[in-house]
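Hi Y.,

Following your request, here is the sequence exactly as I used it, all 93 residues.
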Amino acid sequence: YFKGPVTGLGKGTLTRYNGIEVGRVATLAFDPSDPQRVIVTLQVQPGLNIREDSEASIESQGLTGGSYVEISGGTAKSPLLTAQDGEAGSPRN
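Below is the corresponding structure, written out as tokens. Let me know if you'd prefer a different format.
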């Protein structure tokens, strides 16, 4: 989820993890329960170890470049992020 505008993001926007390209934005949708939040679904490389305390932010490529999603690495002691029931990549989906 992102709170507020997601200017520059669209389907296919680059996603990076610690600066390395790992995927793309799959979908963008309004959160029906909170009008200030946008749900951004990312498709990333299988087996990528994203931690629960990792954070996603919208970054810009240079002064005139486009936007992309940057995922921070989190900490080694934090559990791995896993898909919940009903989310893409979960055992039931």
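The mean pLDDT is 88.

Thanks again,
Q.
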